Amino acid sequence: MRFMMLMIPKGYEKAPPGAVPDAAAVAAMAKYNESLSKAGVLLALDGLHPPSMGARVSFSRGKPTVTDGPFPEAKEVLGGYWMIQVHSKQEAIDWALRCPASDNEVVEVRQVQEMADFPPDVQKAAGETRLGAQKKPSRKSRRK
Predict the structure, then answer these.
(1) Are 42 and 141 a contacting pair, CB within 8 Å?
(2) Sheet with 80-85, edge to edge strand ranges
(3) Half-sphere exposure of 79 toward its Cβ, with a 13 Å CA cutoff?
């Protein structure tokens, strides 16, 4: 089963552009990330710039609207994520418990929806794109 562990740092919604964690926090997180990798459960991970550097695209009656960050109405925002492959929700929680998060951080654990989680009509509608799967690069994009 794939799970995302979502880092939610309190106060990050108000962080200025270019805000970064301190070196000690990065070192502790790097050690944790290495433990995930050595255990063979880590599929992907990334930290995210603060919302002040982002944009949101909302849709009203089919019309998209772009709003540049920051987003004053946001109460919680993502600071980063890990994608892990484990055998159970409890195993994912156990990994989250080991995270060297600070007092102002929360790690939310969410299972990724797999194609098998959907009824046959949804699977058929998804067709070859397979929900959650990446498209293979075209022959053109593979040429150098």
Answers:
(1) no
(2) 42-47, 80-85, 2-9, 105-111
(3) 24
Q: What's the domain count of the chain? A: 1
Q: Which long-range contacts (CB under 8 A, 24 or more apart) does 64-67 make?
A: none
* 95: pLDDT strictly greater than 60: yes
Say which amino acid occupies 84. Answer: I
Residue 126 is assigned to a structural domain of this protein: no
Q: Which residue carries 């109460």 as its tokens?
A: 75
Global confidence as pTM:
0.82
**What's the pLDDT tens digit per position in 96-120?**
999 999 999 999 999 999 888 888 8
Residue 139, in any domain of the structure: no
Residue that the structure tokens 């919302």 belong to:
51
CB within 8 Å of 6: residues ≥ 6 apart: 78, 80, 81, 107, 108, 109, 110
What is the extent of the structural domain holding 38? Answer: 2-114
* Matching residue, tokens 């710039």: 49
Q: Which residue has the tokens 């290495």?
A: 34
